[in-house]
Amino acid sequence: MAVDWGEVRIGVAACDRDAVLAYPLRTVRTGEAAIAELAALAAEHQVIEIVVGLPRSLSGTEGPAARKVREQAARLAAATPIPVRLLDERLSTVTAAARLRDSGKSARRQRTSIDAAAAVVILEEALDYERSRQQPPGELVSAGPG
Q1: Residue 75: exposed, middle, or buried by beta-carbon count in 10 A (0-12, 13-18, 19+)?
Q2: Would you identify the CATH topology of the domain 2-142?
Q3: Cα(113)–Cα(117) distance, rounded to whole angstroms?
Q4: Is residue 111 predicted with pLDDT exceeding 80?
């Protein structure tokens, strides 16, 4: 499962059991209940890992948004036994917007879909990395049990 942490909505994506096809799952509103809702979604879909997009600048530095995402990822890791990883997500929203535009969605309709579409991009990058390098992507926040 991948998570794109926006200011208002959190995009969530999942993939099939063979880790071939990533698809948008839903969006979750940010706020007090978000962590519990994300943990419940992960349990419901029996995910083996949660990948959270880390919003770095184009130069690779981390600003206030990245610090906020790190804090939320740590809270999510504490709320679930599922390993949580942070993955650099530079340009995922730009890529998602281009894909939506290319599929014929209007700018107005994109706003409701962009967060989940960005989560799909993040998950695809994570799956590609793992397939090509035979190791998990990104930075581990929590190893979970065992």
Answers
A1: middle
A2: Nucleotidyltransferase; domain 5 (3.30.420)
A3: 6
A4: no
